[in-house]
Amino acid sequence: NGTVTFEDVRFAYDPNRPILKGLSFEVPAGKTVAIVGPSGAGKSTISRLLFRLYDVSGGRILIDGQDIRQVTQTSLRAAIGMVPQDTVLFNDTIRYNIRYGRWDASDAEVEEAARTAQIDAFIKASPKGYETEVGERGLKLSGGEKQRVAIARTILKAPPILVLDEATSALDSHTEREIQDALERVSRNRTSLVIAHRLSTIVGADEILVVDQGRIVERGRHGQLLAAN
Ligand code: ADP
Ligand code: ADP
């Protein structure tokens, strides 16, 4: 369960300026597809369309054969865990932010998710533990820390499909390693569409799509792409 299919997907934010010009690919259930390409190629737009932040201008996006426009927003959002590049957190506690959408989760489950996302050590070091506020009045979290909170939320939600936009911002190598490990753990055995900026994701992906100017210009496994270039 959780096969994602893009069929000749076209999209424009502005009708006079096409961004995606007919993309077709499939992410089979449980597999990882990495999307790489230059800045502005349309990679983040692909993830936004799958989450239905925007509707396609042409073509179709299917989940298990069903057009996502025929799925309610509620079930679409339940099926997809999205970890965007710039995570916006609620001005509340880290615990609240991790639990968001899974209000039935026990404290132990929240803590386990925090451990897997590798933000627990950092949280424990703070005076009020998990009750630390992340907003203006409380602790300031770095971009990488916020992304790990979003990863913890996604781990707790455990959706069949993951959409990960790996951060490009200059993270120190230790933080980058931690985020990478957390992303790898959460994507294991789930259908994953990864906007990839890290070599390890690309090496491990079942398929790599090279996107440029709204088109797939190359595709294959890591070794195949290396051999062709
Ligand atoms: P990438 O993720 O590959 O860097 P994006 O999908 O973010 O590329 O952007 C693709 C193109 O769409 C860029 O030219 C960008 O300027 C444009 N774009 C992105 N978001 C919007 C938006 N909300 N409105 C208008 N244009 C946008
Ligand atoms: P990133 O490239 O870091 O993924 P975004 O996806 O947010 O960042 O944006 C990609 C490009 O789209 C950037 O060049 C940004 O300036 C442009 N962009 C984002 N939102 C809009 C928008 N609402 N209108 C026009 N351009 C936008």
From TrEMBL:
| Domain named ABC transporter: residues | 4-229
Cellular compartment(s): Cell membrane
Superkingdom is: Bacteria
Family according to the record = Belongs to the ABC transporter superfamily.
- What task does this protein carry out? Involved in beta-(1-->2)glucan export. Transmembrane domains (TMD) form a pore in the inner membrane and the ATP-binding domain (NBD) is responsible for energy generation.
Annotated protein name in UniProt: ATP-binding cassette subfamily B protein
At the highest ranks, the source species' classification is: Bacteria, Pseudomonadati, Pseudomonadota, Alphaproteobacteria, Hyphomicrobiales
Measured against the full-length protein, the chain present covers: 375 to 603 of 652
